[in-house]
Amino acid sequence: MSDEKLEQNGLSRRSFLGTAAASGAGIAGAGLLGLAGCSNGEGDKAAASGAAPAEKAAAHSAEPGKQTSEVGPGELDQYYGFLSGGQSGEMRLIGVPSMRELMRIPVFNMDSATGWGRTNESLRILNEKITPETRKFLQDSGLRCYPNGDLHHPHLSFTDQTYDGRYAYANDKANNRVCRIRLDVMKTDKIVEIPNVSGVHGLRPQRYPKTGYVFANGEHIVPVDGVGKWDDPKTWNAVYTAVDGETMDIAWQVLVDGNLDNGDADYQGKYSFSTCYNSERALTVQGASSNEQDWCVVFNLAAIEEGIKKGDFKEVNGVKMLDGRAEANSPYTRYIPVPNSPHGCNASPDGKYIMLNGKLSPTVTVLDVSKLDDLFAGKIKERDVVVAEPQLGLGPLHTAFDGRGNAYTTLFIDSQMVKWNIDDAIKAYKGEKIDPIKQKLDVHYQPGHNHTTMGETKEADGKWLVSLNKFSKDRFLNAGPLKPECDQLIDISGDEMRLVHDNPTFAEPHDLCLVAASKVNPSKTWDRKDPWFWQEALEQAQKDGVELEKAAKVVREGNKVRVYMTAVAPAYSVPQFEVNQGDEVTVYVTNVETIEDLTHGFTLEGYGIAMEIGPQATSSVTFKAVRPGVHWYYCQWFCHALHMEMSGQMIVKPK
Ligand code: CUK
Ligand code: CUA
Question: Where is it located (predicted)?
């Protein structure tokens, strides 16, 4: 870290080292050994010779088409990328344009480093908002929580059509959940399970006036309680859900036809959209792709809210569900015919258009949002809303925008990115002889989602485009039969797209959003009063007369044992504790370090337990001491020159 950086953070290099030394808790000489990489002269020289990160970053805004993706040592990226982890179940934070991975945020997965899925704090979040039926399923299966998830679509909360830096949301297609990540601490803070659906796929937050609703698509048709019969697929339906982005409760659901795929919201706060394949209601590939046209389902938010007010809904498993099926001809939905099994659904940043990507059709269908009032009023027909349908190439999946009137569509089968002009496509649809296609660029290979910097906000800046490619084949050293995906960075600041970087990624980033760094301001340490900590821990500590920040105490109550300790480099305040075999033990560790980046851990050997404890955080874990013997616990985050010594023993006396 440069001295300027330290100064900005209110610390001098000297005080930074000084604090680390002081936190040596009386161990002589510990401070002299210092923190790795902080006290050596070479490092200082390198830091001093580099310009301040802000100055260096400014050099990136070069001539159009000539911007550099190079981010040198000590320089900072200009954008955060919120990248999905697909079937890995996590969300990832990357820096753009460097494409460096900054962080992995565990969400629907179990995580060995942080203890997500094992600590009391994470289990509270994972299991707080699940259905009673799932709770029983987990119990009967001997599971503490769902061990996996399939996170496809990360999107940030909006205020007035642009990012407000509060939250990120994402779906879990595997176990029908929607999560929220708090951007101030970059931790998952809510997960809600959606009842009555199968496969929560498309997910988008409301853009205006703010989020607001988070829209989630149920992909697979199922026999909805009170509507469908188990033995008759012709009576099965998909369900569209609006989650309240503030409370993370379910606001309402709409019963629909076909399989909902991807979705988006408008820029006006009036409508939301979902592509919809399988209008055939088939259960096989052949069946589901036989119709020439499927749909874009349009949801009328005001009409839905009105319907709820009037009581025009059924309560299905505790959720208000309105009937928006095609044959119901309801005020809530319209079904716009779109060729053929459409996939991606993207609103243009000028707020005017919705792009529906044809997948099995070589076209992208363009809807004019301003015509929707007339459609719902019955003044025009469904297809009158379509203002362009350019033929772009084979397998269009998703579209992104540069804010200068151009769209960028991934062609899965052609392995290309196609740049096209929206106005030209509209003119061509009216019959003018004009080719909307500006350029086709090979990508490697089979692209799915793409995303531009700030491209899903009114502040789309047209600097960078990332293509998330499903296959990497020969682009990297052979990693064995399972290959990485390939995320490619494309410069779109000039007239021509320019491929500048290949980045291998692990299974499977479907989607990302690219956010100006200034929109996100994470804190450096935890606030001791943060409600993210397990409320039960704080209450229990109070009952036990323990101040967590100073604790060194073992409390026994029958066969329940509570161990309270602090972590200060390089020691735990409880160096040893004793329990009886069969006791239920809860360990609370509070990290009382006040300086940035001094994370401790608690790994209990032979018990499958590890947890992260960030500066000023408390983490806790509960387990049964079934295994007798001496079990060391140690800090798994390299925190100090005496980090190896930061350990203790749990002694489990045999029965
Ligand atoms: S889907 Cu994966 S490439 Cu889940 Cu957004 Cu289109
Ligand atoms: Cu504390 Cu390593």
Answer: Cell outer membrane; Periplasm
Cα(273) to centroid(ligand 1), Å: 16
What confidence tens digit (pLDDT) does each residue in 422-479 have? 999 999 999 999 999 999 999 999 999 999 999 999 999 999 999 999 999 999 999 9
d(CA 46, CA 394): 50
Ligand 1 atom nearest the C-alpha of 153 is 5
Separation of 644 CA from ligand 2 center, angstroms?
7
> Closest Cα to residue 224, out of 193, 256, 262, 248?
256
Give the atom of ligand 1 at the shortest distance from the alpha carbon of 448: 3
Atom of ligand 1 nearest to the CA of 343: 6
Length of the chain: 655
Q: What is the dihedral of CA 104, 107, 110, 113, to 10 degrees?
A: 30
Cα–Cα distance, 172 to 149 (Å, whole number): 6
What separation in Å is there between the alpha carbon of 23 and the centre of ligand 2?
11
**Is 76 strand, coil or helix?**
coil
Q: Express each pLDDT in 252-290 by its tens digit.
A: 999 999 899 999 999 999 999 999 988 888 888 888 787
How confident is the model over 304-313, as pLDDT tens digits?
999 999 999 9
Q: Is the peptide bond before 97 cis (omega within 30 degrees of 0)?
A: yes
pLDDT at 61 over 90: no
Measured CA to CA, the distance from residue 265 to residue 278 in angstroms comes to 22
Judged by its nearest atom, the ligand closest to the C-alpha of residue 593 is 2
pTM: 0.91
Of the listed ligands, the closest to the CA of 569 is 2
Please give the structure tokens belonging to residue 258.
Answer: 């076909």
For residues 211-235, give the mean pLDDT.
96
Q: Which residue's CA lies nearest to atom 1 of ligand 2? A: 600
Sheet holding 498-505, edge to edge: 447-452, 464-469, 485-491, 498-505
Rounded mean pLDDT, 593-604: 97
Give, in degrees to the nearest 5, the angle at Cα 580 between 577 and 581: 120
Q: Of 348, 252, 351, 349, which Cα lies nearest the Cα of 300? A: 252
Strand 314-316 and strand 319-323: pairing? antiparallel
